[in-house]
Design goal:
Immunoglobulin-like, Elongation Factor Tu (Ef-tu), domain 3, 3 domains, 6-stranded antiparallel β-sheet, 41% strand, RND_pump_MFP
Length: 494
């Protein structure tokens, strides 16, 4: 079980439950009593809990939203045990709920028998998380008249409900922390294959190109030895030599088989067997030299994939004449890619040559670590940049060779301040902003001053405090929510 670490507790005071009630009333109805809203984090779980005014003898349904912080998914199963312990002494009130009412939302309904201040402990027993969450200082009133009135009004900030968060791919939040960071310079780069990771498959002979309907197309993955295309040699392009070479190979094979039988019967000396073997090898090599070693029964020369990889280019059309050695296919192994970073000459002296860079290819949101390879000794006369090479690591999907990229090249300089994940900072027309979580479903847009980073984290100089929680994944979705003028429909199923 995780040790409790209460990192953020907001609005233990009172807050309107209008968003959850949605019950039309009239002016003669009894005034609404204020409930509470609590947001707490442990090492593994986020609790966002709303509850009505707690009154002796009156059952009120809680809405306890539980999020697994390993992947920010709702807790879909498992039991929770709520233990309300009165500070004045006496037996605690224990309420158990065996499963969420809907994924992520539990709805216990405790009934208190005595007023006072209670400390709540929630024990979570789920396949996703086992945790203990402590919620201090819940106030239970003797009568409804003792409970404060709901002052009404909407909560401030940007609404982004738990149901929205759970359904948004990549959504996550993290704490801003004080720390130091190796400062990286952001420079352009280019993705390219490592040596040996790209090959061109040329036409094996001159003749007419034949492509089957299932011939590999650009973007398809092939394995070494797969047939890519076939060439039909014509007379004058080696057609006759093909026939001659195949005939000589058949004769050599037959002679070799005959020599084996005679040698087994001790009818010929071993020298004759050796001569037959040499002749067979020579015939095979002659045919391979003409047609690449892959000849079909009807005289077509096969072009086979020289490596495992992805087709990046295909030349020629079916029926077109090709010359021996002309490129027909280009292949690349996407698991072995390098990136070249173009570092300004006035910066290259500060580059940390032993540290990994962080690469963001054009058109990709993912960032990739890259192992340092080397720094060029030459300066480009036009761009005044030095080429610094890195090997990409942890590739989960193919990257297009030749793609441009942004490369966070680490330097030996370090800075101190507030550190947040790089995904937390958005560029809004040249202004750096973050979205700060003020409660479980409320966010605040904050302008910050950024002072570099290392590609994975960013150093914030002002506008943010250590201990505040920021949206660090899919922050753009919160930005879109901030631009919407519509009031979000509350999806809690209490």
């Amino acid at each position: 079980m995780h040790s409790r670490r209460a990192l953020l507790a907001l609005a233990l005071g009172f807050s309107a439950m209008a968003a959850c009630a949605d019950t039309p009333g009239d002016e003669s109805a009894a005034p609404e009593r204020a409930g509470g809203v609590i947001t707490l984090f442990t090492d593994s779980t986020e609790l966002f809990m709303e509850h009505p005014a707690l009154i002796v003898g009156v059952g009120g349904t809680f809405a306890a939203h539980l999020t697994d912080l390993t992947d920010f998914a709702p807790l879909r199963s498992g039991r929770i045990v709520l233990t309300f312990t009165p500070r004045s002494g006496g037996a605690p009130l224990v309420v158990t709920q065996d499963a969420p009412r809907v994924p992520g939302i539990y709805g216990p309904a405790p009934v208190f028998t005595a007023p006072g201040i209670y400390d709540l402990v929630i024990d979570v027993e789920s396949p996703q998380a086992r945790d203990r969450i402590e919620v201090p200082g819940l106030v239970v009133y003797a009568t409804e008249d003792d409970a404060p009135l709901d002052e009404g009004g909407e909560d401030g900030g940007i609404a982004f409900l738990k149901e929205q968060q759970w359904k948004t791919p990549g959504f996550r939040t993290d704490f801003a922390v004080s720390g130091t960071l190796a400062i990286a310079v952001d420079v352009p780069g280019e993705v390219m294959p490592a040596p040996g990771a790209a090959q061109v498959a040329p036409a094996p002979a001159s003749g007419l190109l034949e492509l089957s309907p299932d011939a590999p197309a650009v973007g398809m993955r092939v394995r070494r030895g797969d047939v890519l295309a076939r060439v039909r040699p014509t007379l004058g392009d080696g057609g006759a030599s093909f026939a001659d070479a195949r005939a000589r190979l058949r004769e050599a094979e037959e002679e070799h088989a005959r020599a084996e039988r005679l040698l087994a019967a001790e009818a010929i000396p071993e020298r004759r067997m050796h001569e037959a073997t040499v002749a067979l090898d020579a015939a095979r090599e002659a045919l391979a030299a003409i047609g690449g070693g892959a000849i079909t029964a009807d005289g077509l020369v096969e072009l086979r994939a020289p490596m495992d990889g992805i087709v990046t280019e295909r030349w020629g059309t079916a029926g077109a004449r090709v010359e021996a050695g002309a490129p027909l296919y280009s292949l690349v192994d996407p698991s072995r890619l390098w990136v070249t970073a173009f570092v300004p000459v006035d910066v290259v002296g500060r580059v940390d040559r032993g540290a990994r860079a962080v690469v963001t290819p054009e058109g990709f949101s993912d960032r990739f670590a890259a192992r340092p390879l080397g720094v060029s000794a030459a300066v480009d006369s036009l761009t005044r940049a030095v080429r610094v090479s890195y090997a990409l690591e942890g590739l989960r999907e193919p990257l297009p060779v030749g793609a441009l990229a942004r490369v966070a090249v680490p330097t030996r300089s370090r800075g101190a301040g507030i550190v947040v994940p790089a995904g937390a900072v958005l560029d809004e027309d040249g202004t750096a902003i973050v979205f700060v979580q003020t409660s479980g479903e409320r966010y605040e847009r904050r302008v910050v001053q950024v002072d570099g980073g290392d590609g994975r984290s960013v150093l914030v100089r002002s506008g943010l405090n250590a201990g505040e929680r920021v949206v660090s994944g899919a922050a753009y979705h919160v930005k879109l929510a901030s631009l919407s003028t519509a009031v979000p429909a509350h999806g809690h199923e209490h």
